[in-house]
Amino acid sequence: MTMMNKQVRLASRPDGLPTDSNWSFDEGPAPEPGEGEVLVKVSHISLDPAMRAWMNEGATYIEDVKVGDVMRANAVGEVIASNTPKLEVGAQVQGVLGVQQYAVAKPKELLVVDAALAPVQSYLGILGWPGMTAYFGLLDIGKAKEGDTVVISGAAGAVGSVTGQIAKLKGCRVVGIAGGPDKCKYLVEELGFDGAIDYKNENIRNRLGELCPKRVDVFFDNVGGEILDAVLSKVAMHARIVISGAISQYNNPRFRGPNNYMALLTYRARMEGFVVFDYAARCGEAAAEIAKWMSEGKLKNKEHIVKGIESFPSAFLKLFSGEKLGKLILEV
Amino acid sequence: MTMMNKQVRLASRPDGLPTDSNWSFDEGPAPEPGEGEVLVKVSHISLDPAMRAWMNEGATYIEDVKVGDVMRANAVGEVIASNTPKLEVGAQVQGVLGVQQYAVAKPKELLVVDAALAPVQSYLGILGWPGMTAYFGLLDIGKAKEGDTVVISGAAGAVGSVTGQIAKLKGCRVVGIAGGPDKCKYLVEELGFDGAIDYKNENIRNRLGELCPKRVDVFFDNVGGEILDAVLSKVAMHARIVISGAISQYNNPRFRGPNNYMALLTYRARMEGFVVFDYAARCGEAAAEIAKWMSEGKLKNKEHIVKGIESFPSAFLKLFSGEKLGKLILEV
What we know:
2 copies of one chain form a homodimer.
Chain A lengths: L3 E7 L12 E7 L8 E9 L3 H5 L19 E9 L9 E5 L5 E4 L5 E2 L16 H13 L7 E5 L4 H12 L3 E6 L2 H10 L4 E4 L5 H8 L4 E6 L3 H8 L2 E9 L19 H4 L3 E4 L9 H13 L7 E5 L4 H10 L5 E5 L1
Parallel strand pairs in A: 8-9, 8-11, 9-10, 11-12, 12-13, 14-15
Antiparallel strand pairs in A: 1-2, 3-4, 3-6, 3-15, 4-5, 5-7
Helix pairs in contact in A: 2-3, 2-8
């Protein structure tokens, strides 16, 4: 019996928001694992804002996806064939497996995940790179500490929702910025944020003034654009601005930066970028702490699951339209 | 005999580059020092880019100058009358004395300078706030160390020329960005920079690529605008961008920031602002080290002196037109 492998490939580079014409669907026999390799049946594919950057020509912190290649994506799945003693059939693994149903990989490219501790797809979100981004960005780069006022953009997203909850656990005052009243209600009522700003319907600067009477010590920015400028106008002395992403600008051919950056001088503040992969060696420690908080009911995990690999093009757009809550995952 | 005091006042707030109509000249009797005060005869007035920011309504890191007030300026002069045992007639002092010939001040507002160690006006430049800005910005914020590639914008100015020379003394590779071939020649031939880029006539990005083969570890930015974006495109991993000023934007009503700021993420880099006044307690240490380097012939001081308080409006514009080399000073 030949297993058929559906794949999504990058057909052309987008100009702005990706459209259907930027993707092509392919179907062929599943690949055979070579010596020292395994075959993984992909169960869940992660949809991340960074993937939009990978579609552009020229590397940022990682090489671009070439036109014609299977779209790069983080994913989890089960080992269904193995040509190496290092990884047994039945193991649940996470890795850069691509937008496809079956992938061949070497054991060193995969991380075995513990399906008893948490559902496998949570290793793409709260226990995966998004959770690690929240943890290290907030604590290591942002140096958030008790009593700080922490503002988070993209606060209802995979990274932002975890960042805000960790900041609350650390004794910070937490204000989230998100799009729409439902998300804002969710942040305050379900996740325990001290306040939320609906950027689609409220004046961000006025609301920051109301919700952050001592100004902003840490800004964890996933969004960029106008929101970054608005928060810069409210930073406290020695503030830390953590550049985690700039989702508002990824589809903007005229990428715009923060015109208010001289607030860094006035407030002796720092803006710093980071790439979570640099923290690979410390992810075990962070994941253990996050898992403990989850088991104690102190940290909630929210996932938005879309089904079927055929849904990839439309599901991917939800990252930019904001029509989702928490971590966006494609169930294959 | 009544001494007459010529003063320059802010007549109106400028929109863009200041014009003659933004200034008014005033002449009246010199003020009388009150109890506990001294009268200073101003000899030299410092012309600094920050003064342009003080002319705008609304504070940045310091209160704005009010319309009708004597223009705020740092200056040096001699105590010619004293009503306090704390300061004797004949002392040479530095302080925020304003654009005028005579000023009344309290001893705690003044710093006694050593005219035997260096000419008094050097306490407005290399031994004053500009020198301190160079020292602490490069070493404390920029953390420049041996082997680093350091790029400086406004490199032929009061701050930039000292920054580059200190970086050379610390064993860095130093590249300056300045306007025009004469300034670039001066940086390399007289100040010992490893390279210079003429932003008026050369392609900054191409030249940075040639002169900084290992990319840029520290960027000391006095200029902002396009130059900041160009250098961001060439930063090295873990680079430090020191925001000292943004002279290219001070007269721009649509102040623009760095559109390339996502380089901070890609290169795990940091952009940080500072205000030199925060280092007041450590300035003695820095000035002693700079004076020692000067006495050993390792650090050159360059001043551009314009004479006559009437010349203030036109002299001030040289800060923005770039028609000067080193520290711009008005000799009263």
